[in-house]
Amino acid sequence: MKIAVDAMGGDNAPEALVKGGILARDEYKVNIVLSGKENEIKKILEKSTSDFRNIEILNAEEVISNEDKPVMAIRRKKDSSLVKALNAVKNKEADAVVSAGSTGALLAGATLVVGRINGIERPAIGALIPNMDGGFALLIDSGANVDSKPEFLYDFAIMGDIYLKKVMNIASPRIALANIGSEKTKGDKLTVETYDILESTHLPLNFIGNIEAREILQGKADIIVCDGFVGNMILKTLEGTVLEIMKGLKNELMSSTRAKIGGLLIKPALYSFKGKFDYSEHGGAPILGVKETVIKAHGSSDEKAVKNAIRQAVICIENKVNDLIEESIMRR
Amino acid sequence: MKIAVDAMGGDNAPEALVKGGILARDEYKVNIVLSGKENEIKKILEKSTSDFRNIEILNAEEVISNEDKPVMAIRRKKDSSLVKALNAVKNKEADAVVSAGSTGALLAGATLVVGRINGIERPAIGALIPNMDGGFALLIDSGANVDSKPEFLYDFAIMGDIYLKKVMNIASPRIALANIGSEKTKGDKLTVETYDILESTHLPLNFIGNIEAREILQGKADIIVCDGFVGNMILKTLEGTVLEIMKGLKNELMSSTRAKIGGLLIKPALYSFKGKFDYSEHGGAPILGVKETVIKAHGSSDEKAVKNAIRQAVICIENKVNDLIEESIMRR
To answer: Which of A47, A157, A240, B325 could form a disulfide with B214 if both were Cys (CB 3.0 to 4.6 A apart)?
Structure first.
């Protein structure tokens, strides 16, 4: 098995990507293709390991950044680390792509270069939201599609279900629809129609009804289905709130001698608490609905997070997640 | 000036409503009409004050709860504290309504009993979101309308602008559109079209472009305009995250002796921090776009929060907010 890693994408690129690749090679016995500037990658490789087996470099001189317009970047930057990694997968020279770079570019590339699974009109991105019990929920779609139709949300539920069953080992994932109330009749046109579809589907989906945004961190659902605009709002509000609270708390703990001493004493507890919101543990966000395995690692991924994202890709491939999605979509 | 208070709505009704009414009477020199069960209200009044001037009771034997279907409750429960308070305003026997009860019922009642301002198709609810700098932003619409059209969001911006100028004394409120990216072309059909309208309006609106959900607590905008489905997701995700973090932090601080001692030391700092997210300071959420002043106080309002919600109503009336909205809507 061979995993293509976009070595130039992400806040800690290329170092975290290269090192994460080495870790994954050692732990999961896979081959790693590092796509990016050969010189830079080589330097880090030589510093980090003396064993170069099962690691190859795919030279690419261009880099796609968050500032690039996604579709245009994919079309024009043919010699970029991302496009080269995607092409390797498309041409069956690799089995999956992992990138911590621009989400938009990865999405555009997954659709334009790799292509959609038959029957899937809109691939989606599934973000893992950690909750307070140490568990998580898959928020799908977390930002790939706006102005979704009910049929798209139905597909998101089907894809999320297979992903959690096969990759996260959850026997019967509880699927909920993000909504502004718990009753069936609540919501906008999209959610009301999607509710009907999910309730009456002949597929074995464990649909548990609506979930309000207030309950998302409470671990009541394993999959939260929504339009990408809404999913992005949920995800970004959550991230922003956690960030601002932690920042505010830090300031408050510096505000007096008493608070400073208290702050020192609670430091371990605070770290353990912060760990619950640690994205790196659960790996990255899968882009579901495209023909090959594509995993978006968090932009701030360190080498451990990169390793975990590669593990996700490995499990997807081993369990033929994309084949199962295609089968389910054909039967829906 | 006479403010009708729905004395039976909210988690702490009727006590907090009655006591808040007394406080407001004393501080703002207004008349208070307490709508609800006369016996219960009388008992609290007698316990709380020896001065009954400028306070009257409007007897109502029914109560509308959060479980009632809003429109049906307004139509059928004619003898409820809420409907009676709304009718008092409609019949010019009072100048404003303040309620801490069901948001849905208050919205339905504001529209059905009081009626919309000429030219306003959709009244909206504006929630005040406190931010880390001690300021706040008005999130409008925070849940009254789903499937909004761009014209509705334009009206939300106009109404929010007048409200912040007149009630919150902000000279030139920065208006932002909640969106999934900062560029003009980002978003769904609704936000792209609304952006165009807000950018090219001849009204003196200080439109500053898109705001991402991640930035909402950073105090970058004074007004955040969005569809009610989206606004509800933002508001509830924010509330849920703050709540779960505080709960989780508390547990963590009980996890060891060391943490417990540290916890005691940081208690004052923690309270000061929590105070920043205190809804009661800023009062309630105005329902904008209806003919009379209607303020929704937070469900968990204590007497101070009720008093502040009444203050908001007073300022709205004194500054003729509804007249100004009608004028602006005619000129848009």
So the answer is: A240
A229 to chain B: which residues are within 8 Å by CB?
Answer: 180, 187-188, 191, 230
Candidate from A29-33, A269-273, B282-286 with smallest mean pLDDT: A269-273
**Is B273–A215 a contact, with Cβ atoms under 8 angstroms apart?**
no
- Which tokens sit at A4? 């293509």
- Window 162-181 of B: residues touching A by CB (8 A cutoff) are 178, 180
DSSP H/E element including A294: strand A293-296
Q: Name the 3-class secondary structure at B2.
A: strand
Higher pLDDT, B273 or A257: A257
Cα–Cα distance for residue pair B166/B81, rounded to 1 Å: 29
In degrees to the nearest 10, what's the CA dihedral of B219, B223, B224, B228? 140
For residue B218, which residues of chain A lie inside 8 Å, CB to CB? 240, 244
ipTM (interface pTM): 0.92
CB contact under 8 A, A233 and B180: yes
Phi, psi of A253 (to 5 degrees): -75, -10
Q: A297, A312 in Cβ contact below 8 A?
A: no
Tokens for A137?
A: 């929920």
CA distances from B192 to A228, B15, B147, B170, B321 (A): 15, 47, 15, 27, 29
Axis crossing angle, helix B257-275 with helix A228-253, rounded to the nearest 10:
110
Look up the pTM and report it: 0.93
d(CA B177, CA B227): 10
Q: How many Cβ pairs within 8 Å bridge chains A and B?
A: 177
What is the distance between the alpha carbons of residues B275 and A13, in angstroms, rounded to a whole number?
40
Under 8 Å between Cβ of B78 and B72: no
SS3 A317: helix
Closest CA to A177 of A138, A223, A214: A223
**Position of tokens 């905008």?**
B221
The answer to which of A18-22, A182-186, A196-200, B293-297 has the lowest mean pLDDT is A182-186
Instruction: Say whether A266 and B262 touch across the interface (CB within 8 A).
Output: yes
Are the CB atoms for B294 and B286 separated by under 8 Å? yes
> H-helix or E-strand containing A46?
helix A38-48
Residue A180: which of B189, B229, B270 has the nearest Cβ? B229
Placement of tokens 């001493």 in the chain: A261
Task: For an interface test with A, give the residue of B232, B253, B270 to mutate (most A CBs within 10 A).
Answer: B232
Distance CA A174, CA A151 (A): 19
CA distance A58 to A241: 39
Task: Check whether B214 has a pLDDT greater than 90.
Answer: yes
B289: left (phi over 0), alpha (psi -120 to 50) or beta: left
Q: Hey, are the CB atoms on A262 and B264 less than 8 Å from each other?
A: yes
Nearest to A269 among B238, B245, B253 (CB): B253
Question: What is the DSSP annotation of A87-127?
Answer: HHHHTTS-SEEEE-S-HHHHHHHIIIII-BPTT-SS-EEEE
Chain B residue numbers touching A243 (CB-CB < 8 A): 214
Please check whether residue A276 touches B, CB under 8 A.
yes
Which amino acid type is present at position B298?
Answer: H
Question: Does B38 reach chain A within 8 Å, measured CB to CB?
Answer: no
* Residue B267 confidence (pLDDT): 82
DSSP state of B126: E
**Dist. CA A150–CA A83, nearest whole Å:** 32
Q: How far is CA A103 from the centre of its chain?
A: 9
